[in-house]
Amino acid sequence: MLGLTGFVYNDTKGVTIELQGPQQNIAEFLTCLRSGTDKPPLAEIKSLESSDVATIEADDKFVIRKSDSAGTALSQVTADIATCRDCLAEMADSEDFRYRYPFINCTNCGPRYSIVKSVPYDRPNTTMSVFAMCDRCVAQYKDVADRRFHAQPVACGACGPKIRLTDSEGKTIQEETDKVISETARLLMAGKIVAIKGLGGFHLAVDALNNEAVQRLRQRKRRDHKPFAMMTDKIEKIRKYAVVNESGQRLLENSQRPIVLLPKREDSKIATSVAEGVNTFGFMLCYTPLHYLLFAEGLEVLVMTSGNILDEPLICKNEKALERLSCVADAFLMHDREIYRQVDDSIVHFIDGEPVLLRRARGYVPTPLLTDENAPVDVFAAGADLKNTFCFAKQNQLICSEHIGDLEDAEVYHHYVNSIEHLRGLFEVEPKTVVCDLHPGYLSTQYALSIPNARVIQVQHHWAHIASVLAEHGLSGPVIGLSCDGTGYGIDEAIWGCECLIASLDDFERFGHLVYYSLAGADKASKEAVRPLLGLLKKTYGDDFGLEKFRWLLERIEPDKDKQQIISEQLDKQINTVETSSLGRVFDAVAAMLSLGSYNHFEAQLPMALEAIIESGIEEYYDFELIGSSSKPLQLHLDKMLRQLIADIREKTAAGVISAKFHNTVAAGLLEMAKAARKSKRLNTVVLSGGVFCNRYLTTRLVRLLKQNDFSVLFNRDVPSNDGGVSLGQAAIAASLTKHQM
Ligand SMILES: [Zn+2]
Ligand SMILES: [Zn+2]
Fold this sequence. Notes:
binds zinc ion, seven-stranded mixed β-sheet, eleven-stranded mixed β-sheet, alpha/beta, 21 helices, 742 residues, 29 strands, 31% helix
């Protein structure tokens, strides 16, 4: 257009363009590039440098050169992207040669991270390498003016991947695209469970309006309680079942297509067993052409839950799916485009009106978070053992992995180790510094300590939580950090979990915490609510505590009197007990006292049930105390709260009211803690992090209270506030410490 000649190429450092032509035209080109007006929808210019170079010979045209794989890899592998409007229009156009093709994609959409084996990001390095492009696809791939110019996964019905439908044994039922689609839809409408291969792995799909079918899926998948996510093709359909405001709609429709947690509508017809004990539904819109083709057959809403058993990793290979899921799925909708990286669906919810990631995976990974300053050396952060992610720091990038899972499962751990190597390769990271949790029993810690020739830094868990928020906001502190969760190893070897830290990226001081109580049976204590409850009752009532006296309360949680007795004695004699300031366990105990269950079948099940029953409009809270001394951190005492709460239960106060008063007390206690820290340290920024802040009611209320008291408040948005965010905090701390020690 501007009559410029020269070349462009992609390498591991980014894009290089060399241009020849009149000065004025080159200047115009740069202005155009900077303004981004003509850029493709997904292109994002993170930085742009220009300089004059000597002319060696005159170019007579503009050419695209082959990618160069030498050098340093900088974020050229992007995240997977939902099917774009243009592709959807072509797929619906009977004149288009990709009419009803389930793998239509272009430069603006389609698989990326999930199909990349190595860098540079070119077709031979992806799982598309086995499909030779036909002439029509090649023509588009090579045409600078085409929407599919250099779209690595480009394909069509003649040359690309294909779908097929098999029975639960893997025997093909249908191979012809249209018949596969219509037969799959027919099976789903008849209440069958179909394993559907998607972008980042298999989903198990079932009609979300058919309670009997959903229950069958629960039973077969051995997932008794955890809410299922759902998918549909139109926002209007979601509105029938959940409350969607403007920001909710924007999030549902963005190209990352996360699962969005939305308030349930009371008149919703969704099967009750889809999401019990929570007040939200997780919905996502279709994000692959195959999903759209299926829904076009007249499906309403499908449960689309991860294709795995229990807590094993998401399954992405056809053979593995047949092997592991044949006892769950009645049929398999498969395809022959290999998924190289399994990537779960991401989950987002809203805190104080802002979208906050609860699980960061498909659509978001591997996009790095950028920092202002470069890390002096490459860093590997091992993360935490639950809801694990890991993270690399390289130059100005913090590269977080996708959600990996709970490392105690052997397959998840294996996946963890492989994933580290893969992401390290994609970004060509050579870690000189390794950072991990302080917990000696964490598998991630042991992994980090086993890495040869690296300097290892161990970082306290709650400090890492606070640092994750600092890293997201480009701050270094110090701030007042409120770090609240279930479990984290403390520097005094106690189990911390409700901490007020004065924290920066370089150091922290424990300013205050929930007063310690005893927990019996370390591993079981995070599951069985009777354990923290007995610890809290003994702490509160001291010598006044007696099992007989509290039998009325305990028997609704643990009917086995002998077991009550054993735990009680364990606590008295301090056998296999730990001292803890865990706030998560207090939520467990309160939920159990209100008869909402006595066991966490999945992490935070009881706290979520407690949040779900809150009666709105209650401002009351229970009494609490903050007790300080010159030698010890400030202590938050909840004894008074517990006595008043138990009195409320005796007086048969509605559980929803008690739950509200309990949440309000926690918010009030944390507010007072922050005020004390402000007074003593003259700091005004409060940072909230830790799994407890996945609680929307509590966090929204606390943010409001803090703002009313003129604090500035920050919380996690780009990474989860639960343990999925720990690796980012670890990486930021290690990068900062390394910088200052060089
Ligand atoms: Zn497209
Ligand atoms: Zn083709």
